[in-house]
Amino acid sequence: MIQHTVSFALRHPADSPEEQAFLADAAAALTGIPGVENFRISDQVSPQSAHRFQFAMDFADAETYAAYNTHPDHVAFVQTRWVPEVESFQELDLVPRG
Amino acid sequence: MIQHTVSFALRHPADSPEEQAFLADAAAALTGIPGVENFRISDQVSPQSAHRFQFAMDFADAETYAAYNTHPDHVAFVQTRWVPEVESFQELDLVPRG
User: Fold this and answer.
1) Rounded Cα–Cα distance for residues A9 and B65 (Å)
2) Given this structure, which CATH class describes domain B2-94?
């Protein structure tokens, strides 16, 4: 299992309608892509990071994750929403031990 | 619930005995501190980050997390192992939505 995560900050003001629309639209777009399991949104609350949100999702294996990355719905979401609306981000992909 | 996470890179060579000792000793030290739930170690495998590991743990609430941060066993671990052995790190604290 691979847990794909990305923490990020948006260009939108905190608690704005644009922020809420981005989160809702992202969930709708990404959970429809084959292989995405257990999609969740978290608030990032540590003052050690400027990122305000995190998306996390699980994939059964590396091949399923690779197929997600190149899926047309993912590519379209990145181009039309992620790039214009996200100010900064950091991906971490985690494989639990033991 | 607050999920505390920290991704990091060690000064030790990959797959060295020193690396394995750090991970094992961290697990032993941190899981003994009151309030730490569901401690897990993951390999960080995204090429988008130089960090090679992540620790994650859950706390029931902000007060329990704050008590962990100031617990003498945590402070001692940071001083004697974390600072000298960790090259870089990033904390993220996550509160799941919904």
Assistant:
1) 24
2) alpha beta
